[in-house]
Input
Amino acid sequence: MSYIVEERPEGCVLCKITAAGEDRRNGILHRGRKAFVLLNAYPYNNGHLMVAPYSHVDCISRLDREEIFELMELTGKSVERLRRAFHPQGFNVGMNIGEVAGAGIADHVHVHVVPRWLGDTNFMTSVAETRVIPQMIEDTFAALAPLFLEMK
Ligand SMILES: [Zn+2]
Output
C-alpha cells in the first residue's frame, strides 16, 4: 500500500524575503513599521510593485488598524513615486484574495500597484517572448530606489 506523505510547503515568499536581509537583491524598496514595498518579480507591467504587511495573514480583514493604515499609505506613496519615475497614464491598484481570484501568494495578503500606459496590453506576451525581466527589474529598481530612499 502506497502512502503519500504531504510535503511541507516551502514557506511564504514574502515572509522569507523580509527575513532574508538582502533587500536590494529581493527588490525591497521601502520598509515601514508595519508594511513594506517591493518590486514584483513577475510583473504584469513595467514598474509593478507590491505593498504588503509584515503580518502573515491571508486577508485584509485580519489586519489591525495600524497595518491597514500603513498598507494604504504606502500604496499611495508608491503610486506617487511611480508617477514621478515613469509617468504612467493610469494605475491598477488591488488585491487578489484567494487562489481562485488569482493570488500568487495566497497566504500573505498584498496590494498590487500596476502602472498603466495607453496600449500597454501587449506587455505580458512581449515580456514572455523576450525574457528581459531580470534586467528590466534591475533597471526599475535603480530608477525607484532613490525616490523611496527619501521617503519617511
Ligand atoms: Zn508570509
Residues 47 and 140 are 6 Å apart (CA to CA). The two ends are 60 Å apart (CA to CA). The chain has four helices and five strands. The helical segments are 13-20, 65-86, 123-130, 133-149.
